[in-house]
Amino acid sequence: MTEPTLDLSVVIPCLNEVETVGVCVEKALARMHARGIDGEVVVGDNGSTDGSQEAATQAGARVVAVPSRGYGNALYHAIRASRGRTILMGDADDSYDFSQTDRFYDEIQKGYDVVMGCRLPAGGGAVAPGAMPWLHRWIGNPALTGLARGLFRTPIHDVYCGMRAFTREAFEAMALKSGGMVFATEMVARAAQE
Known about the structure:
By secondary structure, this protein is of the alpha/beta class. The protein has a single domain (6-117, 162-193), classed as Spore Coat Polysaccharide Biosynthesis Protein SpsA, Chain A (Alpha-Beta Complex). It has helices at residues 21-35, 52-59, 71-81, 101-109, 134-152, 168-174, 182-193; strands at residues 6-14, 39-45, 62-65, 84-89, 114-116, 164-167. Strands 3-2-1-4-6-5 form a six-stranded mixed β-sheet. It is globular, with a radius of gyration of 16 Å.
């Protein structure tokens, strides 16, 4: 893993997100710049064929080519290549507001090892119209979040929120193995065990 030399690395997994990845990169960099946070954006590209790599680079990101397919693989390799003491992850589809990057960073600076975002009203979030299917919003996510809260004894409100921050040390301690979408759920389970 790369030696940390920056305050914050924003890590974005990407597969064919040419229309939105640049916007995500620009929002994150603008917020870090406005706050004076010494940081970077690293895009873990999973083999995009639509020009996503170029869009991310033009917006100011460093792109890491990840040959093994999967959401978890893209995140894992981008995190390993990042240089921040704090790492924030979020999706390339512009469904998360990267202009809030500093809010996560500030919570980590208070001494937390992992900070989870929340899209649901129960945790102070808000779901934009059309952003989440009705069944997921009112049944699936709340039920699975409740199960995770009970099993792992953790105060999360949205187990599937993909925007979260963590320290480099916490990431190393979690020793995540999942190459696919389960990566995010595994992170919640492992963080709760540490």
